[in-house]
Amino acid sequence: MIIPEELATRIVTTAMSVVHRNVNIMNRDGMIIATGHPHRYKTFHKGAKDAVEKAMTIEIYPAEVALYPGALQGVNLPIVLEDQIVGVVGVFGDPEEVRDTGRLVKMITELILERELLHQESRSKERLREQFIDLSLWQTGPDVPAKIKRIAKNLGIDMTLPRTVVILGVSKWIEHSFSEYGESEFVLERATEIIVKQLTDTGLLSEQDITVMINETLFIIKAFSVATDARQSVQEWGERLMNSVQQYTKEWTACGVGAVVSSVAGYPASYRHAEYCLKQCSAAQPFRNIYERDLLVNFAMNEAMTSSVCLAAKQVAGSFCRDSSLKSETKNTIQALLANDLDLNRTADFLHIHRNTLIYRIRRLKDETGLDPVHSLNDAIVCKMLLVATGNCISETDKERLII
Predict the structure, then answer these.
(1) Residue 194: band (very low, low, confident or very high) from pLDDT cuts 50, 70, 90
(2) Count of C-beta atoms within a 10 Å radius of residue 100
(3) I need a surface site. Which of 66, 84, 364, 383 has the fewest CB within 10 A?
(4) pLDDT tens digits for range 172-187
(5) Alpha helices of 74-167 — where are they, by DSSP H?
(6) What is the mean pLDDT of residues 375-398?
(7) What's the CATH number of domain 5-119, 3.40.50.20, 3.40.50.2300, 3.30.450.150, 3.40.1190.10?
(8) Are 280 and 258 spatial neighbours (Cβ–Cβ below 8 Å)?
(9) How far is CA 126 from CA 193, 210, 214, in A?
(10) What does each C-alpha distance from 19 to 13, 15, 76, 97 come to in angstroms?
(11) Contact 124/114 with Cβ under 8 angstroms?
C-alpha cells in the first residue's frame, strides 16, 4: 500500500492532537509526505530511509543529528501493514523521552491505515456489486455476459446457482437511523451496513448473494440451492425475512420477489416480476412473490397488454370506456365473475343482486362486445385482459372495489 498524502496529513493532525509533539510521516524512499513542520514537507529524511532498509526503529539523539541529513532528534519507527513496511512515522524529541510516545503514534497510524485498507476493499467490492446489479438487471448487449462473469469471479460468485431478484423497501429502517443520528451520507452508509449485517447474521443472506442499496431500496440477487423447490424456498425465505424486518421496525416494509431463474439471462425477467410484486404490496400483504397464482396471472396479463396484443384488445374494449354506465357496471360484473370462478350464484351473492339481474348483465355484455365469459374460457381470458387494458378508464370509486 502506498500511503496517500491526504491520509498521511490526517494521521499527523490526529496524532499531534494526542501527543502534542511534531509528527512526521515518510514514504519508503525517506521523503516526508506529512509533517507538523510545513517547511520540511517533501524533503529527504535519512533516519526514515534507514528505518525502511534495516526494518528497525532508528533513534536519533541530539549529538547524532549530523549523521542523518534532513532529520532531527527523535524516534523513527517503520509502519507495518500486512507484514510489509509501507512507510515510517517519526516523533520529535529526545529518544529517552519520546520512545513510548513513538510506539503509541505508530499504533495509531497502523490502525488508521488498516481501517482505510479495509474500507478501500469494501468500496471496491461494493462497486463490483453495483456493476453486477446494473449489468445483470438493466443492461443489454453482446459483451454483457462476459463482463458479468468477470465480476462474478472477482466476487467469488458461483454463477451455476439458481437465483431470484428481491426488492426490499428499507426507507423505514433508514428513517429510523436518521432520527437517531441525523441525516448524512455516513449515516446512510452505516445504516446500509447494519441492515445487510442483520440479514446476514440471521442467515437470510449468504456470501453467494449480491446486495446493493439504491435510493433507500435494497436490491438482492438471492441464491438458492439447486435441489430446493423454488416456490417453497421463496415463500419460506420471505416469511423469515419479514419476521426479521418486524423486529427492527414496527412499520410495514414492502418486499417483492421474482421467479427463481437458472442463469443470468433470466435476471431481467425476475427483476420485472419483483418490481411488479413490490407495487402490489400493502400493509396487509407486505411480502408478495410472483409464485402467488393471482399475482402471476395479473402480471402475465400486464405483460401481454404492453405488446401488440394491447392494440387488438383495446378495439374490443372501446365500448367499456365510451359508455360510463356500461363501464362501471360491466367492469364490476366481470371482476366479480372472475373472482368467483364464473359461478353465477356466488357472483350474484357477492354483488348483492338477483341471479336474473346478473344473467341480464351477462347478456348485455355479449350484445355489446360479443364476449360470453360464462360459456367460453377464451372469452373469460379476453375479459381479464380488458380489465388490464382499460385500467386508466376506471374511476377512483371503482378502483376501491377492485377484487382481482
Answers:
(1) confident
(2) 11
(3) 66
(4) 777 766 666 666 666 6
(5) 95-137, 144-155
(6) 68
(7) 3.30.450.150
(8) no
(9) 11, 10, 12
(10) 10, 6, 15, 12
(11) no
